[in-house]
Write a structure and sequence with these properties.
This protein is an alpha/beta fold and 180 residues long. It is built from eight helices and six strands. A hairpin with a 7-residue loop joins strand 5 and strand 6. It is globular and about 45 Å long. The model has no long low-confidence stretch (mean pLDDT 95). Bound molecules: flavin mononucleotide. Flavin mononucleotide (FMN) binds next to strand 2 and helix 4.
Length: 180
C-alpha cells in the first residue's frame, strides 16, 4: 500500500476532491504511522522524500520502503523539460501548492503565473481541464515560458540533485546507511 503524504509532487492519489486540500491533507510521518497500524501488508511511504535520512525516518515510522518522485525529476534520465528541471532549485519558485489549475484534480506544483491566475477558480473537472489546458502548456513549453507550464514538484523540490539516476540511488543508499 502506498501512503502518499500531502507533501507529494504531482497528482494526489485521492478520490476526494475538497476545496482547500492543503489544509485537510495529512503529512507523511503522521500518515505512515496510522497506515502501519491499520494494515498488515507492506507500506510504501511517498511525499517530500529527497535524502537518505528521510528514508530512514519513514522506515523507523513503520514503512517497508520509500518512493521518491521529485528527487528523480532532475535526474539525467528524466524526461522532464529542462525548464522544469531548472525551476526545481530556482529561488524564483519559492513554494508549491496543491491546485486543480492544470488538470481539474488536486496536484502539487511550483507556484507560477498559470497556477496563480487559474488555481483559485479551477473546477473539479478532471480530465476536461487537463485536455483544455494541454495545448496552452505545450505552447508555453515550446516558447520556453516556464510560467505557463505545469511544474509538478513535491515540497522537497529545493533539494533536487541533478545526477545520473544510478548515482542518485547510490547516494541515497549511503545516506540511509549513515542515518541508521
Ligand atoms: C512529475 C510527477 C507526476 C506525477 N503524476 C502522478 C499521477 O499522475 N498520479 C498519481 O497518483 N501520482 C502522481 N505523482 C505522484 C507520485 O506517484 C508520488 O506520490 C510522489 O512523486 C511522491 O512525492 P515526491 O514527488 O515529493 O517524492 C506524480 C509525481 C511527479 C513528480
Amino acid at each position: 500500500m502506498i501512503a502518499q503524504g500531502v507533501e507529494a509532487g504531482g497528482h494526489q492519489g485521492t478520490h476526494r476532491d475538497v476545496p482547500d486540500t492543503d489544509c485537510s491533507g495529512v503529512g507523511l510521518l503522521s500518515l505512515v504511522a496510522q497506515v502501519r497500524e491499520a494494515v498488515g501488508i507492506p507500506v510504501v511511504a511517498a511525499g517530500g522524500i529527497m535524502r537518505g535520512g528521510q528514508i530512514a525516518a519513514v522506515l523507523t515510522a513503520g514503512a517497508d520502503a520509500a518512493q521518491l518522485g521529485t528527487a528523480f525529476l532532475a535526474a539525467h534520465e528524466s524526461g522532464a523539460h529542462s525548464l522544469h528541471k531548472r525551476a526545481l532549485t530556482d529561488p524564483l519558485y519559492a513554494r508549491t501548492e496543491l491546485t486543480r489549475a492544470f488538470s481539474g484534480r488536486p496536484a502539487r506544483a511550483l507556484v507560477n503565473r498559470f497556477l496563480r491566475e487559474h488555481g483559485p477558480y479551477a473546477p473539479a473537472a478532471y480530465p476536461d481541464v487537463h485536455h483544455l489546458t494541454a495545448p496552452l502548456r505545450k505552447a508555453a513549453a515550446k516558447a520556453g515560458d516556464a510560467q505557463g507550464m505545469a511544474l509538478w514538484a513535491g515540497q522537497g523540490h529545493r533539494m533536487a540533485r541533478e545526477l545520473p539516476a544510478g548515482q542518485l540511488v547510490e547516494l541515497l543508499a549511503a545516506e540511509l546507511e549513515a542515518a541508521r
